[in-house]
Amino acid sequence: MSAPLRKGWCPGALRPMRTGDGLLVRVRLTGGALPAGTARALAQAARDFGNGLFDLSARANLQMRGVSDDTLPPLLDRLSALGVLDADEAAEQVRNVLASPLAGLDPMALIDVTALTRRLEGRLTADPALHALPPKFGFLVDGGGALRLDGVEADIGLRAADADVFRLTAGHATLGFVAPENAIEAALDVARAFLRHRRPDERRMRDLVKRLQDEACETPLPGRERGGGEGGVLEELSPASRFIRPGLAPQPSPEPGEGRAPLLAGCKLFGDGHASGFFAAAAPFGRLDADQLAGLATLAEKQGTALRLSPWRAIILAPVPAGEAASLGTAIASLGLVVDDTDPRLAIAACPGSPSCLSGQASAQADAARLAPVFAPFIRAGASVHVSGCAKGCARRAPASIVLVGQGGRYGLAFDADSRAPSETAPMDIGEIAALLKRRVAANGAKKNSAERDSP
């Protein structure tokens, strides 16, 4: 079995992306569920057919690195035997559904979205018309509970608002509220409306919604109530209105985050009064190796817990009795994974950089790890940090407090900017950057001490 190779594509298994260290093969797991046996088999496949490294994506997928042209066909055969390979490229591309990572495991959840997620994937893959959705167009199904997905962006979202109702969202806009039994049809109605109304350059729902909102402001419709969503500006997306529940006032959608919150590591209980919870094993910058994945599989089998991928680049083990959290944390830490949610690496966005990425001009992840202690005082004060191997800024779209952008093996440095902003310094090596930032910490400390002495 073979597949066309693409650079710069949203990758899959059947549509791998060529990178600096070979082909990137993305394995999409329904609801992020990763049985221990499958995890161990994928770890072995990474050793056999790749370079033994994985990335955890922000869409809760597992990406295998370093696959070659020669090893791709036997890898696809292995994935097919494991039941994690789609029938064809079109089905793989459209099966882009992010679900609550604790679905079916969380006693605090408002709605168990396990079956709904599976049905939504089935409807997407079965309808050829929906295969026209752009490659990065994604759905989100959030049942609420201990790990809500409020800060995670989605083109179309179903977010539990109560035990028997979802809030239906399109980009940042709320369209209304739907019952669970109507949720899939409503979401697919909105997807079809997107395909009808989008322009060729509108590849994400946020682009279409912004245009519709702008057009509504420019050409208001007097004497006529526009559709049910957010101020009535989304009439073109209103086919789903046949499912909208009356009597529930639309509420603003939360703004999407950048993956920093929650800083997910260590053991968390399922709320007050619960004697069990879940353990988040965080991979620094989303990178882990085959031995770490196999080690987590062994721990899950010993503990009798499930493994779930999350959009925060951590693998979840659940349920975990509170009394076993300490020993499990020690075991996970011995694998080289993060179990302390104060670890500064969790708050740093860093792409693979060179040599893993063809566009990378600096070793972003390795350098971010070396600079993490220097960044720590800024992070404790609430700063965000982005270390990017090039100006594309794949690891973070939003501006950050501190931005390093690779330039010929060194970094340009900027503050309160995104990766495309002009550098405020000449390119520096990480030693020079560390010295500059330490001087800033010292200067800020001196100012604080002076202010305290001068205060009455």
From TrEMBL:
Gene3D superfamilies: Sulfite Reductase Hemoprotein, domain 1, Sulfite Reductase Hemoprotein,Domain 2
Coiled-coil regions listed in the entry: none
Leader sequence segment: none
Domain of life: Bacteria
Group of enzyme by EC: oxidoreductase
Domain Nitrite/sulphite reductase 4Fe-4S: 92-164
Residues in Nitrite/Sulfite reductase ferredoxin-like domain copies: 15-81, 281-327
Enzyme Commission number, as recorded: 1.14.13.83
InterPro entries for this protein: Cbl_synth_CobG-like, NIR_SIR_4Fe-4S, NiRdtase/SiRdtase_haem-b_fer, Nit/Sulf_reduc_fer-like_dom_sf, NO2/SO3_Rdtase_4Fe4S_dom, NO2/SO3_Rdtase_4Fe4S_sf
MF GO annotations: precorrin-3B synthase activity
Keywords: 4Fe-4S, Heme, Iron, Iron-sulfur, Metal-binding, Oxidoreductase
Entry keyword Cell cycle: no
NCBIfam families: CobG
Name of the protein in question: Precorrin-3B synthase
The species this protein was found in: Labrys monachus
